[in-house]
Design goal:
The protein contains 12 helices and 10 strands. It is of the alpha/beta class and 357 residues long. The strands form 2 sheets. Strands 2-3-6-7-8-9-10 form a 7-stranded mixed β-sheet.
Amino acid sequence: MNPKSAIKGRGAQRNVHNRFFELSHEMRDDFLEFCRKEGEESDKNKTQYLEVFPKTIVNKVESPDIGLSYSMNSYQGCEHGCIYCYARNSHEYWGYSAGLDFERRIMVKKAAPQLLESQLKKKSWKAHPIVMSGNTDCYQPAEKQFKITRQCLEVFLKYKHPVAIITKNALILRDLDLLSALAKDNLIGVNMSITSLSEDTRRILEPRTATIKKRLETVKILSENGIPVNVMLAPIIPSINSHEILPLAKAASEHGALSIAHTIVRLNGAIGEIFKDWIYKTMPDRAEKVLNQIESCHGGRLNDSRYGTRMRGEGKIAEQINSLVKLARLKYFKNKAMPKLNLNLHEEYKDGQLKLF
């Protein structure tokens, strides 16, 4: 397959079967084929925003190796289109495909700020860091229009509650005023995802994300404003970005990051099929090599769901990757560390203002 035939501006190159649908319900392909025969343009590659109405917004995270207790997501689906994204599978629960649908049908939770406030006001609620973007990026392109993340940050500040953010979008700098105010009380930590220093790699791996230059500049500006930043080298994909671990860590440190974290790619659920289709279209010359090396990190499979090994992998290639990250920490992050977030102020501000005694 010629790389030029790939759908520009998207990660996934097609939709895949939703495992929750019976075959009798799969009508999409027939409909699109009908449109083509009738001369209609069946697919304009446009993003649709669909409002949804959840009853709650804060989710307890049960996975023991994630490193967070609670998360919230203002959006479901993500226009960034990162081909490896584990969140793609969750789109199937909404009745959509983990492929192109994940990037083009974005569910918007406009009530998120009100739901968050209700949660933080509960007498039974005890402060825990809540991670924004545990599933999809809270600063994806939709945020520029809907400003839900900004409204949520205003709630966190009002109730003096700790929050962490995971993003790969420079749009976070729009909210520098709120982030700086949260940082004064040690209530904020930012995790900036940077998976490559090559723009060519970024464009095909993460097609609608901020440029690498922009992301590094964002790390620098946040750090200069007293906002602690951890850089996520995640995921590391053998023979795509695995050779960049040391230069990535060096760049992160030089721009003010206090730490780095990493995972080794695993292609769980529908993502394996989506990734294979993508790599044969965009990197046909090394597709087999990459897939074989990913499998070598997960016991001969593209995915390993076992807690404890799924993030770090096993085997020689995984050992090399993990050793390089360890070396990078020793070399570039000695005597650096992310501070623990402040859990003590929230009880005093549960009414939205300092309680008077």
